[in-house]
């Protein structure tokens, strides 16, 4: 039974191709005057903090594609394991896939070893993966979780740098959110106060940053379990749909009908006996 | 929404930094500031740990790209542990420095990280090694590194004495860090100092406001 992590960094002395392929492609495309399609970014505000009973993570729910809001109810707090959740900022596809991959790896690890994964393990796997791709994976992540060694909050940058911190904000709205957190954070806060502080930090990001908006999601992780409140607070600027845009059968009338039978002929028949002894 | 990296050659988080290591009579003191920045204008962390323990009596401090430095020290930690298990004895400081040097030299095109390795071993006692950006390995009685080191070359050269006592050495290291953090904008935060001797390892943290002041009006 192998317990070696499935995403093991073997970069020592081996190929650095993961980053160079993209860079070469970009060069070719620019020369040929073709524009690479703009990836959907989560211009985002995400925040997290460690409180007395656990970890509180928060995020807005707006995903932008250029200047258009592509998704008004995007889920930026991703499930990693029953005791670990991850907020993602940067390119939406990258954060989605990276956290998915991490979650699968950790589930297999849990099954093999019979233990719940620790937050440091998730962080190490992420660091190895992102470092190998030399910043081409545009994922800035906040990992928070509770395990046997305590409550933890980590930041993982797109180039593979990590830091263990008591409170954190990332994304395009991070400076606004960080202002609120810096002012009111205290170690060992009570749960309700912590939730309000994260809400206020995300709210500040939503108000001051064009790339963040809509609703606020909060995820509370404690030893007892996880409370994923989606949405914790709805946007004050919701508009009402003018009509129902669903069309029942019969809306479009059928003018003519033509049936053409397909003539099939059996060319070859093979029979294979299944041994069900 | 997009923030542009101005002037900085390093992509992502960098430890524009002040790091130093000094030998004294019976041990070595290794020290650093705690600031990590992005693009030279945003402090992404005020409390980053730049003193990484790679073995029981061997520490290394990092400068340059944080991602590269963390990845290299991770690989180095593994290799040094493995080496120590194979040899059935604690590794020599020179061996640890060599491991870092091999990693930096063989991957010099892709990496942007420099290190100072310091520690104590039974064979040669307290030692300090520098591993520069391209993979050069140098042994010195004391060394300073990082962007903040340019401001304290004069101070270090003038004030260093061989065979200092532990207290004198602590004062020297603290003053050097304080002077550099006072003049370099990408160094700051708290001063981390680790004293490594045969007996063990002692970690001292001095908050920014408790550092010695030099004409700070």
UniProtKB/TrEMBL annotation, chain A:
Q: What is this protein called?
A: Proteasome subunit beta
BP term (GO), one: proteolysis involved in protein catabolic process
Catalytic positions are 44
Q: Which UniProt keywords apply?
A: Cytoplasm, Hydrolase, Nucleus, Protease, Proteasome, Threonine protease
Where along the sequence do coiled-coil regions lie?
none
The family annotation for this protein states: Belongs to the peptidase T1B family.
Q: Mind telling me which InterPro entries this protein's record contains?
A: Ntn_hydrolases_N, Pept_T1A_subB, Proteasome_bsu_C, Proteasome_bsu_CS, Proteasome_sua/b, Proteasome_suB-type
| Catalyses which reaction(s) | Cleavage of peptide bonds with very broad specificity
Output the Gene Ontology terms for molecular function.
threonine-type endopeptidase activity
Q: Which organism is it from?
A: Oncorhynchus kisutch (Coho salmon)
- GO-annotated cellular components: cytoplasm; nucleus; proteasome core complex
Q: Where is the Proteasome beta subunit C-terminal domain?
A: 240-271
Q: What is its main location?
A: cytoplasm
Compartment annotation: Cytoplasm; Nucleus
From TrEMBL, chain B:
Task: List, alphabetically, the GO terms of the cellular component aspect.
Answer: cytoplasm; nucleus; proteasome core complex, beta-subunit complex
Recall the GO molecular function terms of this protein's record.
threonine-type endopeptidase activity
Q: Which residues form the active site?
A: 17 (nucleophile)
UniProt subcellular location = Cytoplasm; Nucleus
Q: Matching Pfam families, A to Z? A: Proteasome (PF00227)
Family, similarity comment: Belongs to the peptidase T1B family.
| Official protein name in the record | Proteasome subunit beta
Record the organism: Oncorhynchus kisutch
Q: Lineage of this protein's species?
A: Eukaryota, Metazoa, Chordata, Craniata, Vertebrata
By which gene is this protein encoded?
LOC109907527
